[in-house]
Amino acid sequence: MNLPLSAVGSLALSVKDLHKRFGPIEVLKGISLDAREGEVVSILGSSGSGKSTFLRCINMLETPDSGSVTVSGETIRMLPARNGKSRPADIAQVDRVRSKLGMVFQSFNLWTHKTILENIIEAPVHVQKRPRKECIEEAEALLAKVGIADKRNQYPSHLSGGQQQRAAIARALAMRPDVMLF
Is this model's pTM higher than 0.90 or not? Predict the structure, then answer.
């Protein structure tokens, strides 16, 4: 669904001519996409069509062979590698850009030894160095928003798959990202 331009803000994500190969198989063949603040973009395709690879390339969990990724106005600088593909020029820049991206993985990747609340506050407290009390308050509000406030002290193994997914969404939102990838 595309909203009228008056309902959306500035460009949040821009991907231009993204290519990715795994050996002889070209999975991404020149994919381009622009998404503005407030816009929801869905990518549809059959299993194995490259949807997850595309998202992993956006946040550089997979390095695209060529093309460009711009998040909140910052383009990830790439250099040619010896194999003719590309690699990020500056890992610190990749980390900075990743801090603007929230990602909910297919397997959720919740820490099994931490409660749901602990999962949500871990990165804001330790990565963003935000006050623990503030992070707990925000995490509780996010848990209420996704409908699992009563599960804050539970461990992931005690939640259904849908509840784990909602916890992963709350965890990603706790980092206050500019762009969310699902």
Answer: no
